[in-house]
What does this fold into?
Amino acid sequence: MSRMSPASADLKHLYFQMLRIRRAEEAIARRYAEQQMRCPTHLCIGEEAIAVGVCAHLTVQDKVFSNHRGHGHYLAKGGDLLRLLAELYGFAEGCCGGRGGSMHLTDLEAGFVASTPIVGGTVPLAAGYAWAEQMKKSGAAQGCASVAGGRMPEATNVVVIFFGDGCFEEGVMHETLNFAVLKQLPLLFVCENNQYSVMTSLAERQPKRDIYKIAAAHGLTAVSGDGNRVDEVYELAQVAVANARNGLGPQFLELHTHRWPEHCGPNEDDDLGYRSPGELAAWKLRCPLLHTQQSLLAQQVCNDEELAAMEAALRLEIEQAFAWALQGTRPTIESMRQHLYA
Ligand SMILES: Cc1ncc(C[n+]2csc(CCOP(=O)(O)OP(=O)(O)O)c2C)c(N)n1
Ligand SMILES: [Mg+2]
It folds into this structure.
């Protein structure tokens, strides 16, 4: 399949989705200081284009697995904002019953299976899910063949795993790549390369080389792109998702981006000096929202009033979502032993 740019209406939708994640993350950061959210929280401000550009090609039946920095993936896949916020406050109404916090998100109705804090933890889970999808498809094909003379089954549901450049250094990542290629799983690996694992840059951790080329050595189709350009992410993901869906095996995207806030928490940390001087400022000029907003205005897809209306709608939605979440109830002591396996 060849690459296609998003149509104007799609670009507007992509912009709105990115803006929704940005404003939700900013509101979380603002309210974090109130000390009511007690879970460690990794914000994805600056990286919104990747979640949005990839998830634009997924159906509800397609599944997403994520990591510690998962709010954007959850929202882009259609996860419930109310239940995300309630989870951050540790309330029973949260998407994990208030037991998990920011790094344990789930919304099965939306096809967002799980995020976990263990770096690499969800990578083999995603492969397992993709293997199950593949088995279901081949089971359906055998059923079809006996009933309808070998008619081809529907294309497979796709599984997407989002992870960082730090995760790519985990052994399980490479074991999973090997297995996914061996089994030709309908799995899309999305590496959000923000150049840092906590405060250590890629240059301090690895010899100079491209992550996607290491992935390609496992024998799958791997490409890299600008993770701050939602149109580019959209185009690359369109091809990758279609390939995975249509039996061409696992696909790999390495998308370059940058996290603006501190690794974990609501604040900025540029004063700590682990980023080179001017690095963050340069990335802020490459803001994914700003670029898309300029395109929408230049192409006359949106005017200033429509952009202001989007902001107003999101302000209301997010205010109401916090008001709902803050009325949550604490999980009961009796529920403490539920969902435990020993
Ligand atoms: C197995 C494991 N090792 C270490 C950690 C501590 N830790 C949490 S996030 C993180 C950095 C991960 O970096 P990356 O995968 O690039 O994601 P980013 O935070 O940059 O989005 C580390 C080392 C962990 N949670 N799990
Ligand atoms: Mg990183």
